[in-house]
Design goal:
By secondary structure, the protein is mainly α. The chain has 14 helices and no strands.
Length: about 300
């Protein structure tokens, strides 16, 4: 309970501070901060944390489960849309269907999943969250996510830009670099400052979430957002989380996987919604409400999948 309280204090205080700063500072500040974290902060953090993570065991199964979670979310969302049509006798617009599917599939396993994992289980099991995010969520969002977004798009889009974004993603490159540098011995002083920078980037990531939330003010699609969040943050982690022992995943590793599955929709869903002219209001509402819902669901998952 004490650890959970500390986690809440850190999460809420940093996100709230970011929310306040987002209301006060120029709109260019969160944009610049996001660019800094994307190109510098997160990549260096990945290299730093990878030096202390345990890569033994079945860690390579993490991205496989991430893809299972994405496909299960998409399947349940498709079933949900069919039920909606059956009971309401109305067919949602294609852009709305696209945003609904994306919100139920892809979670914020990076900017939000990383700090929560580090706070709950520490750096030893951080690689499970990292593999889940980079080799699972990221590839799923810009793979199946792009395909679905293009399928439900209402306008012209540039697929080449999305492909380019995947190939130049510095987080993926730093992931490979971090694996290569694990065995390299560096000076204690250098490692000390590297750790400080890495944890500072984590704090800045939470500030950025608050800043972005301060700019999102749409609540028109709350019922549909609620349904997609029920799938993404409740059904998927409950169904797949209960099967993790069958894969030999238990203890802290299982807790990390469940927490990653239970994250609210990723900002990538909004990026895809804007790129492919989907329902931006639904994407925005799912992001905002999902961040709030996480405060309620987080202790539930920690209790259901407690370690020891």
């Amino acid at each position: 309970m004490t650890n959970l309280l500390k986690l809440y204090v850190k999460l809420v205080s940093l996100v709230l501070l970011g929310f306040i700063l987002g209301r006060k500072l120029p709109a260019a500040v969160p944009i610049r901060l996001a660019q800094f974290l994307f190109w510098v902060g997160v990549p260096i953090s990945i290299v730093a944390f990878l030096r202390k993570t345990d890569l033994s065991g079945q860690i390579w199964i993490a991205p496989a489960i991430a893809h299972l979670a994405i496909f299960l979310g998409a399947l349940l969302a498709w079933i949900g849309m069919k039920w909606q049509v059956l009971f309401t006798k109305t067919v949602p617009r294609q852009p709305t269907q696209g945003s609904f599917l994306l919100a139920a599939m892809v979670g914020n396993t990076g900017y939000l999943g990383y700090p929560i994992t580090l706070a709950v289980v520490g750096t030893q099991y951080f690689a499970w969250a990292l593999f889940y995010d980079l080799l699972g969520t990221t590839l799923g969002a810009y793979g199946l996510g792009v395909a679905l977004a293009a399928r439900f798009s209402s306008g012209v889009h540039n697929r080449g830009e999305i492909v380019k974004a995947i190939l130049i993603n510095p987080a993926l490159w730093s992931f490979g670099l971090g694996l290569l540098l694990r065995q390299v011995v560096i000076a204690t002083t250098v490692e000390f400052y590297l750790d400080i920078f890495a944890w500072s980037a984590v704090a800045l990531s939470l500030l950025l979430i608050g800043m972005r939330l301060s700019k999102l003010n749409s609540w028109h699609s709350l019922p549909q957002a609620g349904m997609s969040l029920g799938i993404k943050m409740l059904l998927v982690p409950l169904i797949l989380g209960s099967t993790l022992p069958l894969f030999g995943i238990t203890g802290a590793a299982a807790q990390v996987i469940v927490l990653q599955m239970a994250m609210p929709p990723a900002f990538a869903t909004l990026v895809l919604a804007e790129t492919f002219n989907l329902d931006r209001d639904l994407a925005v509402t799912a992001l905002v409400v999902g961040a709030i819902v996480l405060l309620v669901t987080l202790p539930v998952w920690l209790w259901l999948f407690s370690v020891g």
